[in-house]
Design goal:
Shape: globular
Number of strands: 8
Radius of gyration: 19 Å
Largest sheet: 6 strands, parallel
Strand order of the largest sheet: 1-7-8-4-3-2
Strand content: 5-15%
Number of helices: 10
Distance between the termini: 48 Å
Helix content: 40-55%
């Protein structure tokens, strides 16, 4: 049975620079999201979007200070959180949604972001939900075969965890002791189905990893420092050649499955409680001020700087042209 990861993590264990970086990353993810939703409301985005508001601590904590550019990630359905934490420029992600050549796909995304940035180890998502779990075995096996210390981190939701791809991936990762870190972002709902309706395990999704001999745990995914610590330990295990780790990070999404989803299948009081008491950014900001790491004025300055950065990124993405028709043939081999 998966145990809850509990560790006394104090801000004094980190430098001010690192703590501020965690906050900045979470705030940037949130503001990126809010501004993208505004662009959608203005009719500037042709595709659709799955908001990651509410889960910023999970991505910031797992990636920042833990992963290098050469370490691989496969992001999940709400993967802008992870792409931003990994360092993909905001203008590139906005460009993908706006369909301009500023985007990582140089206009091929048409508003549906299945993008990649190999220079930063962002290898994308797969065409169907959960199929990145199979791809992650390939990159992890390559690291093992070549003797590099690169790790692969694969993100997926509780919905994807109910699909068969997870079990095949866990089997090979466990058999070959591959340097993979599985991070299940359990926000309790796969579209509109609660996790209790889609999983045969009665306690935790992480319990499945036991059957494959893979160390596993459950962690508060909204605690950015706790996420950092548990992933740090998993990365170190992988680099020592000790194989994969399965982390079930518990969180909750503040918005519907997609923009336009009425989100009427979630109890209003439960959702409000998550917003009021478990918001990763609000809680971390309060912790930083309580521990006198920063002042309220410091945080206001940081947020104003992020607002400027986002405005410039949107301007750059919007100013870029749409691709020429010939663009569709680039990279086409059959």
């Amino acid at each position: 049975m998966a145990e809850t990861y509990v560790k006394e993590v104090e801000t004094k264990s980190y430098t001010k620079e690192v703590l501020v970086d965690f906050y900045k990353t979470m705030a940037k993810i949130r503001k990126f999201d809010e501004n993208l939703i505004k662009l959608m409301a203005e009719g500037k985005v042709s595709g659709f979007y799955h908001s990651g508001i509410g889960s910023e601590g999970l991505s910031a904590g797992s990636i920042r200070q833990n992963l290098r550019d050469e370490d691989y990630i496969y992001y999940n359905h709400r993967g802008c959180n992870q792409k931003i934490a990994k360092g993909v420029p905001l203008s590139k992600i906005y460009g993908d949604f706006l369909g301009t050549i500023e985007g990582t796909t140089r206009g091929l995304g048409a508003g549906i972001v299945h993008s990649a940035d190999p220079s930063r180890g962002v290898l994308g998502q797969a065409g169907t939900i959960g199929s990145q779990l199979g791809l992650s075995v390939g990159t992890a096996y390559t690291s093992k075969l070549t003797g590099s210390d690169q790790v692969t981190v694969v993100y997926f939701g509780d919905g994807a965890a109910s699909r068969e791809m997870l079990h095949g991936s866990l089997n090979w990762a466990g058999l070959y002791k591959l340097p993979i870190i599985y991070i299940c972002e359990n926000n309790e709902y796969a579209i509109s189905c609660h996790v209790s309706e889609t999983h045969s395990v009665k306690e935790n999704i992480a319990d499945w990893a036991d059957g494959y001999g893979i160390p596993n745990c459950v962690v508060d995914g909204n605690d950015v420092l706790l996420m950092h610590e548990v992933v740090k330990e998993a990365v170190e295990r992988a680099k020592r050649g000790e194989g994969p780790t399965f982390i079930e990070a518990q969180t909750f999404r503040h918005r519907g499955h997609f923009e336009g989803d009425p989100y009427d299948y979630v109890d209003v009081e439960i959702l409000q409680n998550w917003k009021d008491t478990k918001d990763p950014i609000t809680n971390f900001a309060a912790k930083l001020m309580l521990d006198k790491v920063v002042t309220e004025e410091d945080l206001e300055k940081i947020n104003k700087e992020i607002d400027v950065e986002i405005a410039e990124a949107i301007q750059k993405a919007e100013a870029a042209p749409l691709p020429n028709p010939e663009r569709i043939y680039e990279g086409l081999f059959a």
